[in-house]
Amino acid sequence: MADPNDYKYEFFNVTFPAEYVAHVEINRPEKMNAFHEIMWHNLSKIFKKLSYDPNVRSVILTGAGDRAFTAGLDVQAASQGTLSRTASDPARAGNALRRHIYEFQDCITDVEKCEKPVIAILHGISFGLALDLSLACDIRLSTATTKFSIKEVDIGIAADIGTLTRLPYSVGNLSFAKDIALTARIFSSDEALQHGLVSGVYADKAEAYAQALEKAVLIASKSPVATMGTKHLINYSRDKSIEEGLRYTAVWNAAMLQTQDVKDAMLSGIQKRTPKFSKL
Fold this sequence. Notes:
Elements: E1 12-18, E2 21-26, H1 37-52, E3 58-63, E4 68-70, H2 75-79, H3 90-113, E5 118-122, E6 125-127, H4 129-135, E7 139-143, E8 147-149, H5 163-171, H6 174-183, E9 187-188, H7 189-194, E10 200-202, H8 205-220, H9 224-237, H10 242-256, H11 260-271
Helix pairs in contact: 1-3, 4-5, 5-6, 9-10
């Protein structure tokens, strides 16, 4: 099992509730888990480390407390940080902001790049950055009382950390995507489930976590070569033609099929036993 002492990062709790399963908890409940700059950098570091940790095969992501998964960006902290800096002219100011946005985007994308499947549990207030972050995850679950909103237009900006890029692929409905992005309205888990933003809705955070843990344990029982490849190929193929996706998959599996995992998985069915796979 992975060592929690290797994952000491401010504003996050990282635990290992089952073999090969990590639980990352955003830990700033007094501010409804709102993000300021050090938090997205630490999030990036955690998921980069989890990606290569041979003792991790699946990840659960939650927010501390019951009030919020995350209320989004800490606007007050942002206004006193990069957004408050001045430059000698508009071009230099714009260039500094472009670099800052790229940096923020990359930190959230590191969740998507993590080789291990990530299950997000959206609960309580899930605004703004909550959507950016959860859309970079592989599976999204929510509670009956979760409140969602893409809030950026209410603070005078277009969402720029990932929601507007990933949301249309995730829900497959441009009308719904534009509806919630342009109005910044609050919507429920029922509507999120109806449009495919989440794949399950549970009574409360505890029940959602129990379901997430069950899924995470099941994923962790599979060949890590197979789950890594499945996640990578789905993400690769989403914005490619079917032909390009098929050809890339063939090249990928030309290497990845050459593993003891395939033989062990096939024989386990015949021999009616649970296979054990080597660490990745």
